[in-house]
Amino acid sequence: MISDLTLSLLKKKYPVGTRIKLVKMNDFQAPPIGTLGTIKGVDDIGSLLVSWDNGSSLNLVYGQDECEIVNE
């Protein structure tokens, strides 16, 4: 379970439209490391909803997957 404070901080750090780069994802269907994407939102359990540039829409799981914000 994610705290309300953590969820609020995630939503502030990753507002809709934020560009990210994949660092690590524990999923066999994951896009390749380094794939860029755009944040579509943060759900109630803290997952980052992402539209990946390669067409994937696999979410990043809070506490397991990693990304970094990119400034384009």
Q: What features would you describe in this structure?
A:
- The radius of gyration is 11 Å and the shape is globular.
- It has one domain: SH3 Domains (SH3 type barrels, Roll).
- A hairpin with a 5-residue loop joins strand 2 and strand 3.
- The chain contains one helix and four strands.
- The mean pLDDT is 96.
- The protein is of the alpha+beta class.
Main sheet record: 4 strands, antiparallel
CATH topology: SH3 type barrels
CATH class category label: Mainly Beta
* Low-pLDDT sequence parts: none
Q: How many domain regions?
A: 1
Proportion of residues in helical segments: 10-25%
The fourth-level CATH homologous superfamily is SH3 Domains
Range of strand content = 25-35%
Structural class: alpha+beta
Strand order of the largest sheet: 3-2-1-4
| CATH-defined architecture | Roll
Mean pLDDT rating: 96
Summed up, the helix count is: 1
**Oligomeric organization of the protein chains:** single chain
Following the backbone from N to C, one meets helices and strands in this order, namely HEEEE
Shape: globular
Q: For the CA atoms, what is the radius of gyration?
A: 11 Å
State the distance separating the first and last CA atoms. Answer: 33 Å
Number of strands: 4
List the helices and strands and how they pair.
Elements: H1 4-13, E1 19-24, E2 36-42, E3 48-52, E4 66-69
Antiparallel strand pairs: 1-2, 1-4, 2-3
Keywords:
72 residues; 14% helix; 1 helix; alpha+beta
